[in-house]
Design goal:
single chain, 130 residues, alpha+beta, NE0471 N-terminal domain-like, three-stranded antiparallel β-sheet, 6 strands, GBBH-like_N_sf, GBBH-like_N, metal-binding
Length: 130
């Protein structure tokens, strides 16, 4: 399903997605940055994910459309390699509560704080073994 409205609210740091069926979702920029579909975040296979930290204050500087299937946000921390397909955005929107809870559990399991600088722990927040 393709959103018919995409608005980046800089003040509240949320991306608003509106759909023709009347549904709308508000995805925090931090959430989108943490769940970027890029290889930098997700790795190139299972167990290669890099746990993202220190993203609470990140903002989306620009959003570029990619064909008719995705958007490519550019974040204030320099990250701009994630292509968020319409399908992936809807998945994030519909599962936001569960995904955020999983993220917080991963932080806890790795003994890192949400606001820790990236690379500040001994294992660089890797979620799997290399």
């Amino acid at each position: 399903m393709i959103p018919n409205q995409i608005v980046a609210h800089q003040q509240s740091k949320v991306l608003e997605l509106g759909y023709e069926d009347g549904r709308s979702f508000h995805l925090p920029f931090e959430f989108l940055r943490v769940y970027s579909p890029s290889a930098e975040v997700q790795g190139h296979g299972p167990g290669q994910e890099t746990l993202q930290t220190g993203k609470r204050d990140v903002v989306i500087m620009q959003i570029e459309p990619v064909g008719h299937y995705a958007i490519k946000p550019s974040f204030s921390d320099g990250h701009d390699s994630g292509l968020f397909t319409w399908e992936y955005l809807l998945h994030l929107a519909e599962n936001q509560k569960q995904l955020w809870a999983e993220y917080l559990l991963k932080l806890n399991a790795h003994g890192v704080e949400r606001d820790a600088l990236m690379g500040s722990s001994k294992d660089s927040h890797s979620c799997g073994s290399h």
